[in-house]
Design goal:
Belongs to the cAMP-dependent kinase regulatory chain family. Keywords: cAMP, cAMP-binding, Coiled coil, Nucleotide-binding, Phosphoprotein, Repeat. The protein is an alpha+beta fold. The chain has three domains: 2-85, no CATH class; 94-238, Jelly Rolls (Sandwich), CATH 2.60.120; 263-366, Jelly Rolls (Sandwich). The chain has 14 helices and 16 strands. The protein has a four-stranded antiparallel beta sheet. It has a four-stranded antiparallel beta sheet with strand order 2-7-4-5, with no helix packed on it.
């Protein structure tokens, strides 16, 4: 009898609870009027997505599997998690924020300003209102690491996320079937890491090692869960949906898109605003979310291009290592996402590698 009970308990923990945890979290975020109909539709989409993922995984090459494994592993942990339930957070602390008592760590004015400057570079904190932002600033703790220190290790439980103030770190991932770890990227000041374990209640997905003396600001799990988590999940999903519609990014895999989400910034401009000027040195690539823009050539003295949502511009300055080729002006009010060239190249490699996948569009530019 006890064996049967244990089996049922394991089945609920492994199979049932993760699905309902995710469903409850999505319901709280979306707040549908018809909860029953919305839930049925959501579950059907998850089932189709799982079936499609199995087909895609079957056809992936060995190289593609390595690139996809990090994101897929996180999602698998999300489905199979046996840790504290998201539902507890949703119906407990999340719905009773007034009961949450965030930690407060005394800091100097200079430290607070440095932390604020750093965390506002991360998409996770950009949607916070002033009150929640101040709670996060108060809860942040300065932590220092020496060269060679492991800040987090793959497979460990994660209780904090880190924002880098000074120094560099390297991110390594151990893939199934490989004896050696693979270097994924180098983190620099202003970037954050460690949030995936908190967002998805999963073990650490990679190992982060200091290659210089490092100063970070750490945010605890409890403050993250109560103040940041749900807005961060929604923000990431919105960004990924937007990026999936941008032509330039169609050939990027899921892992590349997730990485790009973390460095993209949003800005809004009124109609008539000049975004880039012909002849100036450019250091940003722009993605158009809303609105229309026009490109003018002073050399030709005419309009050369109309931009609409889903288009992008500014990439030729990097591709050809030359000044801006045209002046781009907002025709209507616009919402743009932008990424500096250094971040783009560091995350995705040289832009040319991405553009080679879209060579038909660029062939006439390269011949000029």
């Amino acid at each position: 009898m006890s064996s049967k009970k244990a089996t049922v308990k394991d089945y609920i923990s492994m199979k049932v609870k993760p699905v309902f945890d995710q469903l409850i979290a999505r319901i709280v975020i979306e707040k549908p009027d018809d909860v029953y109909a919305w839930s049925i539709n959501w579950l059907q989409k998850q089932q189709k997505g799982s079936q499609l993922l199995q087909v895609v995984n079957h056809d992936l090459s060995e190289e593609e599997e390595e690139e996809e494994e990090l994101v897929l592993e996180i999602k698998q942990h999300q489905k199979q998690q046996t840790r504290s339930a998201v539902s507890a957070e949703v119906y407990g602390e999340y719905n009773k924020k007034e009961d949450f008592k965030p930690r407060y760590i005394q800091k100097s004015e200079g430290q607070i300003e440095r932390i604020k400057k750093r965390i506002l570079n991360s998409f996770m904190f950009q949607a916070l209102d002033e009150k929640d932002l101040n709670i996060v600033l108060g809860a942040m703790e300065e932590k220092k690491f020496q060269v060679g220190d492991f800040v987090i290790k793959q497979g460990d439980d994660g209780n904090e996320l880190y924002v880098i103030d000074e120094g560099r770190l390297e991110c390594y991932k151990r893939f199934a079937g490989l004896q050696e770890e693979k270097l994924l990227k180098t983190y620099i000041p202003g970037e954050s890491f460690g949030e995936l374990a908190l967002l998805y209640n999963a073990p650490r997905a990679a190992t982060i090692k200091a290659i210089e003396n490092v100063t970070t600001f750490a945010l605890d799990r409890e403050t993250f869960n109560n103040i940041v988590k749900f807005s961060a999940i929604k923000k990431r999903e919105q960004m990924e949906e937007i990026l999936s519609k941008i032509e330039l990014l169609q050939s990027m895999d899921n892992y590349e898109r997730v990485q790009l989400c973390d460095v993209l910034r949003e800005e809004k401009h009124q109609a008539g605003k000049t975004i880039i000027t012909e002849g100036e040195i450019g250091d940003r690539i722009y993605l158009i979310i809303e609105g229309e823009l026009e490109a003018y050539s002073n050399k030709l003295n005419e309009k050369v291009y109309d931009y609409k949502p889903g288009d992008y511009f500014g990439e030729l300055a990097l591709l050809k290592n030359s000044p801006r080729q045209a002046t781009v002006i907002a025709k209507t009010n616009v919402t743009l996402l932008y990424c500096d060239f250094n971040s783009f190249k560091r995350l995705m490699g040289p832009l040319e590698q991405v553009l080679q996948r879209n060579m038909e569009r660029y062939e006439h530019y390269l011949q000029q």
